[in-house]
Every structure is written in structure tokens, then in C-alpha cells.
Fold each of these.
Amino acid sequence: MEINEVKYREMLNTILEQCKANLPRVSEDLVKKAFKFSFEAHKNDRRASGEPYFYHPYEVALIVAKEIPLDDISVVAALLHDVIEDTGFDHKLLSNEFNQEVAEIVNGVTKMSGIFEGHEITQAENYRKLLLSMVRDVRVILVKFADRLHNMRTLEFVPVQKQRRIALETLEIYAPFANRFGLGRVKWELEDLSFKYLDRDSYENIAKQIKSKRKEREAYLNKFMSPVIKQLDEYKLKYEIGARPKHIYSIYRKMVKLNTTFENIYDLLAVRVILESNDPNECYYVLGIINQLYKPIADRFKDYISIPKKNNYQSIHTTVIGQDGKLVEVQIRTRKMHEIAERGVAAHWKYKETYSGADKELEDWVNWVREIFENASKNEATKEILASFKLNLYQDEIYVFTPKGDLKRLPINSTPVDFAFEIHSNVGYLCIGAKVNGKIVPLDTILHSGDQVDIITSKNQHPNKSWLQFVQTHKAKSAIRKYVNKEEERIIITGREIWDKKLKKYKLIFSKDDLNRLVRKLKFENQKVFFTAISRNEIDLDKILNPVEEKHEIETPEIEYETFAQLARSDGGGGVLVDGEHKGIHYIFAKCCSPIPGDPIIGYITIGEGIKIHRKDCNNLLNMLKHGEHKLVPVRWPNSNGTQFVAGIKIKGQDKPGLLTEISNSITNYKNTNIKAVNISTSDSMFHGTIAVYVSDLEHLNRLIERLKKTQGIYSATRFDINN
Ligand code: MN
């Protein structure tokens, strides 16, 4: 529909009316000016539907004024939100024409379009910067959500291919983001609309079934609610009660998650009571009334009033057994809580009347986004930032307790290490073990809501690289990574110092090229790896730099593939070196016996998979040899190149306080050995468990075992095949 004089007036009036109805203060002049400015700027543009483009900023401004009302500046910014991108105007002009505030918001929205469009991993750094800048003003986000919402509502006019892309992006990024900002209504509408374009069949199927069951549901819920209503009226409470709307996508998600049918999900009926008073105590009254009328199911009760969700959601959820044994979920909340649930930041603003910088709750909202990014160091791989950002968007939360009963909120699947870093980074750095509900558990144990967690620290403990594989919080990840990087750097520097000293000792001069040649010859990936090996005492520099003594040792003969194959066929002899760099011969270490340098080994040829290196006494290998052909090839360990191997130790002993600390100190104090995992359980006064460690060779492992045996309270320590 073209916009003539009459239509123009009508649209302008609608906007002004909505502003006056929903906003605390309205500068009519400013809104009128933005309206006119946007209309003129988009005069020659059209939407995919063919209608004048101005309808879009107009509708977005209406959403901002009506559905997530905040203030007039947001409405003005919404009217202008596409002006920079689509027309020739720039930030400066807007700033002159309107004001700095408006220009900043419009600018923020424009930039956000760019980053959200291709949220490629390579763009994560931009993503980071822009999110950081945009959260300076939450209004940028609100306008962006309104923009996306209108685009989703009018998606039918867009080509199918683009529909899918936009719908997917909305579901992956915008909906969880809206949820985080407490925009409950925007979230479910975005989800339902995305779902409609991504899987139209399922969408329509569920919609149809909801419709067909409506009468039946309504009848039942009326029967359920009528005694409740009677009681509420008796108590003279002011309230609104009704069936809670069901969202198509959430039904679908439940069906998939529980692998069940529509009927089973839809059986769960839901009622919501909204109290007009702002007194949370009334919610508990109502809870009492409902629990007297219907029997509650104990483990389905959730009190988000005492413990609000991180996005400030508050409500009581209780599930009761209604007539005919049907389960009904009842949500109880005040009007204010309801508005915050539906409109998040926007509602909050309304209740505060004016936005001031000192607004604690609003600050919290904005800060969680900042937190994620500001904790990240500049050098950190941008990929990981995005990954953990997305992670934090999607995750639900668990609530765990410190020994003193303080509540900590963590993302789902968090471990004791996450908890430790949540308490303090020093606790995280030194954390060596944990007790969950009084029992010692491995550090990668997944915590659950209600767990009480006690962290055991040791001043000799350091963060371990392997922790990165299980920690969930960004805080823990970035602290561990920071430590590991620093540590690696320190080791390299030490290695270089040792190297320089040795050169002096033998009065040698190595040019850069000489050094590179040596590094290559010794088969190290690069200088860093080489210096690391020196630092860890894994190569003997004296032997290398003083060639008179042990020349033959370093001259590992290069073995051509032909020779190798010949030897392989001959099934005898010895002294074949299997080395990762040998032309085309692929080998791996067998998982069943995980050999480490020093173990007698043998290669087993598997067609198509190369050579598997087993320990000569591997049971699995012996079994394989009983059936089938012998396809063995003699192999021997190459010179050490600093590779670390995982080996297991099984220990048994007397349980006593501080034992875990002692064990781990005993290990880490020897050659800086890293512990990969500890798994210890106790029964009565005994304990038994396994420790996985990183070692360079058999001698290293045996030394560790000897040390452990000498530790007081340990009765036995033996090697153990981790994967058996
Ligand atoms: Mn737009």
C-alpha cells in the first residue's frame, strides 16, 4: 500500500498514541522529526513484498513502543535504524540532526546487522568487539530484536533459500540471546517463527493438533481452576488466572528430547496465576491454597522467587495432581514478575521509571555479556571465544553450594574445577581434588544442582592442560589457558638458557640456520619443541654437542620405505625404527596396551590402517596372533623427541586426611610430571584408585611408581593399562 498524505498522518498518530500509552515520557517533536526523516530517507526503497520500505522501520518502531516499551529514544532509534545502512546518511549527520545518543544506538544496530549476518568463526574477534561496544547501551539490543522480529514476521516474501538461513540464524543466535535478556515473549515468537520456516510440516502438524484438542483442554482446565478461583476470591486476592499458552517450538523440542508423541507432552496441562499486588508473599499464599486442593509432586517444585534465574526470571512452579490423575503445572507470580518474564530489560526499565547508571539489576544483565568477553585475553583464539559465548547462551544453569552454604550458579555440566575458579582464581589454580557431598570425586565429575562442593587445594598443584577438556565456564577456560601458555613459554626460555650455557661450555657457535638444521635432524617440529625438550631434560645435549663420544647415537639411519617393507616381510631381526616421519608409513600406538618408550614393542600390520604398535606382552595382541595371520614387524623406539605418553598407575592404601595432596605432590614434584586424571574411591578406611600421568618413558613411569610406593599409607602401586 502506497503511503499518501492520509496514510502518513494515520501512521504517525498510531506511533504517537502507542508512545504515550506505554512510555513514561515522550518528546513528540523528536518522534515526529525521526518519522519524517526516515520516511524521506527510504522514499525510493521497497521491501521484498513490494510495499514501500518505510513500513519496516515504522513497524519496528511500533514493536519497540508497544511490545518492549522502553523510552522515546529507542522509538526514535528504531525509526532510523536502517538509515545508515540503506541510505547515504552517516553517524555524524544523525548526531547533528538528532543527538549523540540516537546516533550511537543507530550506529550500534547497523554494526550488529553486520556481525550477526555471517557469524563465522573467523569473525569472532569482530563479534567480540562489537558486542562489547553495543552492550554499553541495551537499547541497541532491543531495537535489533524488534528489527529481527519484524523481519521474521514478514519472512514469507523472501526467497526460500534466504528464509532458511535467516530462520536458522534466528533460532541459533537471536532467540537464546533474547532469552538471556529476559525477553520471554520475543524469544518464543522468534522460535515459533523460525521453526515454521525450518520445518513447516512439523510446525503445521503440531498447530493442527493443538487446535483439535482445544475444547477438551479448556473444559478440563475450567474444572481444575474453579475450586482455586473460589478460594482466591474468598481470600480477596486480586489476580488473573488462565491456561498458559503453549508454544509450538517448545512442544516440538520436548517431543524430540523425550522421544515421545504429541499426546504425551500435551497431557501436561499448565495454568498460570498472576497476582496484581507486588507482594511476593501472596505467591506463597496461593501456593498454599493450591497445595491444599491438589496433591503436589515433590520433586517438581521450583522456587524461582527465592532464587531468581540469571536473567532475573521469578516465579513459583509447582506440579500437582488434578482431577482424573492428570498432572497440571501451576506457575504463580506477581504482575511485575510476569512483565519481567515477558519483556525483561524493557519491563525492568518501566518499573524503575528512569534509567540511571547505578541501577544494579540492569547492570547485572548487561554485565554477564561483558564478563564473557572481558575475561578473554587478546591472544586467545577467537574461535574459542565464540564457542564459549555460544555455549553460555544456550546453557541452562545449576545451583551448587560451598561448604558454608553459599550459593554458586554455574552452567550445566560444570565440574569441580569450574566451581573452584568460580570461588577464586587462586582456588582454581591450586585445586587438586574435590569432595562432593562429602565424597572424594575426580576433578572432571559433573556437578548437579544441590551438590555441596568442597575444593581441596595444594600449593604444589598447577592448572593442567587436560582440564580444558572438561571445564565449562569461560572463567576457568581462560584462566587455565593463560596459565598453560605462560608455563610453556617459561619452559622454552629455560631450555634456551640451558642450550646457551652448553654452547659456551663446548665453545660452539650456532647460527640460526645451524640450529634449524639440528632441530630438523633431531626430528623436532620446531625450535620451541626442541627447547621444551631440553628444559624437561628429555634430551642429552652433551651427547649431541660433543660428537666425539657418541657419534653413532645421533646418526639414526634413514630407512627407506623399500627396506622397511622388506624387513616387515622378513618377520625377524630387529632394530627397525618406526618414526612418524618415515615416508608414507603410518603407525599408531595400540590403545589396548598404550606402550611408552622403554617398553619392548612390536608392530602389527593392519591393511589400510598402517602399523599398530603393541607392547610385546600385550594380551590383546597375543589373542590376535592365535587367530589369523602373523603380520608382525619389528620396531624400536626412536630417540626421544619430547613426546609425552599417558600411562596409568593403580594404587591401594590406607585412607587418611591429606592423602590426595600427598599423592599428587609426590607425582608432580618429580620432573614436573603432569597428572591427567585421578580417580579415587574409598571404602571404610581403605582407598583404591587410578592415576593417569604424562610420562616420557618407562623409566619415568617406574620412578614415579617407586616414589608412590615409598609414600606413607600406600600399600601398593602398579602399572595399569588405562584402556583395559
Ligand atoms: Mn531493519
Amino acid sequence: MNTELHVYTMPRIGDKAPDFEAVTTTGKLKFSEYNKESWVVLFSHPADFTPVCTTEMSGFAREKKFFEERNTKLLGLSIDSIHAHIAWVNAVHEKTGVLFEFPIIADIDMSVSRLYGMLQPGESETAAVRAVFIIDPEGKVRLIMYYPLNVGRNMEEIKRSLIALQTSDVNKCAMPLDWKPGEKVIVPAPKTIEALAERKKSDLEMVDWYLAKRSID
Ligand code: BEZ
């Protein structure tokens, strides 16, 4: 095994998303430009012309309107050439009518995969795992998912996560287990004795003083 391959960076939640330039199916792209004033869902898949990846990419493509309505751009990646990407996009379009309109990075030198910890040698030394990075318009990594090669992701969870992050930012709240849009959210716990007294008098739905929920519009 090539031990050099084990020296990888791995962005963490709260980090500035590492910037890069890449060749993609929509042309050359600089990440920080693409991310300007927009959320980005950056996701990797192991390889073009593989079945699980085809279902996942088609799933992202079908949700174009959902992501656009939430000021969110998609950005795919795999360690394949731009020619392989173009041929796969074309083949899926011809066979199913689904067009992958979002850019897909041709990370043939693995530079972006390494930067984002998408190459995990215990799983594969040559194919990216199924990673998802949700990055906010300030360029901060807000949520990370990693799936192995043989398990496709859950589109509903990706969508739910994005809505939860955006709702949390707007309403300054946290989301409980299995939270879904329309459900009550968790109000931050009081941090002073005075705030605790106010909390006790409030009409919030309360399990205990530190676990209170409210509706949002
Ligand atoms: C797939 O997308 O079907 C796949 C890719 C790499 C390994 C296993 C499955």
C-alpha cells in the first residue's frame, strides 16, 4: 500500500471550505466564486457509469427546483476524466431523459478529493467515497456526511438537513430528533437565573427548563 496516500486533510464542521479550481462538465470553476452568496452542496461519487451513482446523480438532478428555491447550488465530483463525465451525462440523458445540469468535477488528479477527505484508503485508494458537504454562503462547512461505496445516500435526509440548517439560522433555534419542516423547534436554554425565571413563566412547550419547544411560521 502506498503510505503517502494516508496523508489527507479532512475539513471539519465550522471550518472554512477549502478553495480550489477544477475542470467541470460546465467549464472551469473556482469554488469560492461558485460559493459566493449561495449555499453549495458539494458531493462526491465513486465512478461514472456505475449503478448506485447513476441513481444518486439522477436524484440530485430531479431536485433542481428544490435546491434553486433554497439558494443552493449543486457540485458533483468523481475521480474520472472530463470525457467520461460527458459520456455518462449524455448516456443517462439519452436513456432516461434526466440531465445532470449541475457541474461535475473531473478530479482526475485527486486533488479536490484529497482536500475534502473524500479518498478514504480503507474503502478505496482510487475512488472517492460518497461524501456530502453542505457549505453556507459565508464559505463555512456546516454539515458533513460520508457514505461507503456500496450504500446510496438518502435524498430526503440531504434536503431535510439543508432546510434544518437554513431554518436554524433564520430562527436562532435547534432541531430535535427527526425534525421535519412544520414541526416545533428547540429554543436555546436560558443562560441566567433571570432568564430561567422568564422561561418558567413562558407558554413554551416544556419538558424541563432546558428543553423547550416553539412553533415557527
Ligand atoms: C455504484 O455506484 O454502483 C458503485 C460504485 C463503486 C462501488 C460500488 C458500487
